[in-house]
Amino acid sequence: MTFQALRIIFFDEKVRSIVIQTLVLGVIALGIYFLIQTTTYNLDKRGIDTGFEFLKNPAGYDISLSLIPYTAEDTHLKAYFVGLINTLTIAVAGCFVATIIGFTIGIIRLSTNWLFRNFAYAYVEATRNVPILLHIIFWYTVLLGLPKIKEAAMFLKYFFLSNRGIYSPAPIFQEGMGLVFASVITSIIFAIFLNTYAKRKQEISGIQLPVFLINSGVIIFLPTMVFIFQGMPILWDHPTLKGFNFKGGMVIRPEFIAMLIGLGVYTGSYIAEIVRSGIVSVSKGQREAALALGLKKNIVMKLVVIPQALRVIIPPLTNQYLNLTKNSSLGIAIGYADLVHGFGGISLNQTGQAIEIMAMVMATYLTISLTISFFMNLYNKSVQFKGNT
Known about the structure:
This protein has 389 residues and is α+β, with helices and mostly antiparallel strands. The protein is 67% helix and 7% strand.
């Protein structure tokens, strides 16, 4: 290498940056290669097979909560999907509950009512300063203190509450129920288009259509009429106490309820502060101008304040959704049959394929997180102020 070449490498900024980045990538590649080689050698030395063939083997264990048919004779791959569905279920339900709690408490935090305002403040401070794992264990312990199965509390005649969960009638769909579901989907599509049309009409003419009343009527009336005309094609399987447990119906396990309450209450306290800060970020003059036009306070909050506050609320709200999804893995502490508890725990112990299983679990959580971020970023882009570029 000549002196001129060395001079170019050290004094030309563009060439120097390329050389440094190449060296860094080379070091990273060597590190990965060394890690793979060492891991392969150690696994071979201990007689541990590598690969994903174990996914075809029978799992050999039961899962207490499964939304799809599953038995111990099914494969580890099906156990993976059962855990994935359970993880997605608690994540979606938890985000829904946390959002409702967060927005409600966040608005109450700014109330002029002293009692409501300080109650919301106490909730936020008390909840955020207790680890989420303790929240989950606390609610699970409370649910275990409910009446035993033979002393289950009955309410609304067909519902039973015990320390094994909430037992309720299970629907059995008959022929014709497909049209009812189709009418529900049609009503929702109509509601979306009507909401878009009404928003554009209001922006152009200032006329506000009763969207909520129309959509509520359509979503309730159309499926109800189809349901009646189809002869009410649904039967109910009621739970009955036989021996040491209820037979028939369906049950919501205490593990799921504890996870839902724990994740919802804990994350809702953070969302409440996000909502409060978003509302406070809106200029006071916006509220005063809207009130000066004769709008009611609830209309001002709905049509003036919240739409502007969303541009501040959405980015940190996305982080809370991601945190809640990842915190769902703490369900292993109370035996909730999520991805980590079943596939990442029992399957790992039975097969010994730690690297493959952990790689699948990590890739799954990464995919879920990236998907949430993608859709939330799209929504965030839609609520941002549009300016001329």
